[in-house]
């Protein structure tokens, strides 16, 4: 389902919004792109710029990824959301010939533009992305019981939908893995301000966040330098892209994750990163009993 087909996706054009502070935590700014920084109106043109310390941050990220490959070998996996941060990580894995597998979730409600990145990764890098999908019977049961779009009725129902479409397939994705790599960055939100390079995910695995210290400008500077493929929805003021019914464009200066579940006054998390979220308890929904045991894992972020 595309964003235009969804009754829950705002049609409001946010492009003319007023720019707020460049250094506001978790805020997206249009300031900082110099002449020739990218096509007018593109995310590269808006956000890419070289910042002090970029080369050092890049070197640390490469070392983190090299160490993951050395420490965990075939037990390591990049759990990619196909968002721009994860596309940067995929480019680094390919560029440095690291033996790290790639996998993603197809929730059944992603934008076509998101799914189109899977063959682009194959064609560009020669890497396969394993795709995990929800259990069809669980999705049908959830829809029959709650309707196709129950997300806006309560936080509990929204998290239950995430449980069926994200957490359960993520648990299968990570089965047998000892480490997984995400695109989390400290700047993305207040909830993620303390993201480390490595952490225990609470399920006996090591969670790796190689871009933890990167700024939004760093991400797009790298994309510009290496012509990294990315979701064209980023050009439409969507820095954080999830399922189509639950993602809208944001105003310049809004929090990175303001376009996710925008009708909620919540931490803007779905339980995939429990140490940086308000993950649901096992009593919050009829589906959570089979999904929340793996609430520390996952993508898309």
Automatic annotation (TrEMBL):
Described function: Catalyzes the formation of sulfite from adenosine 5'-phosphosulfate (APS) using thioredoxin as an electron donor.
Q: Which organism is it from?
A: Roseateles amylovorans
Q: Where is the active site?
A: 270
**Alphabetized HAMAP family for the sequence:** CysH
Q: Which residues form a coiled coil?
A: none
Record keywords: Cytoplasm, Iron, Iron-sulfur, Metal-binding, Oxidoreductase
UniProt-listed InterPro entries = PAPS/APS_Rdtase (IPR004511), PAPS_reduct_dom (IPR002500), Rossmann-like_a/b/a_fold (IPR014729)
Q: Which cofactor does it need?
A: [4Fe-4S] cluster
Name of the protein: Adenosine 5'-phosphosulfate reductase
Region spans: Disordered: 273-301
Recorded GO molecular functions are: phosphoadenylyl-sulfate reductase (thioredoxin) activity
One Pfam family from the record: PAPS_reduct
Q: Which family does it belong to?
A: Belongs to the PAPS reductase family. CysH subfamily.
What gene is this protein a product of? Answer: cysH
| Composition bias, Low complexity | 277-301
- Record's keyword annotation contains NADP: no
> What domain of life does the UniProt record list for this protein's source?
Bacteria
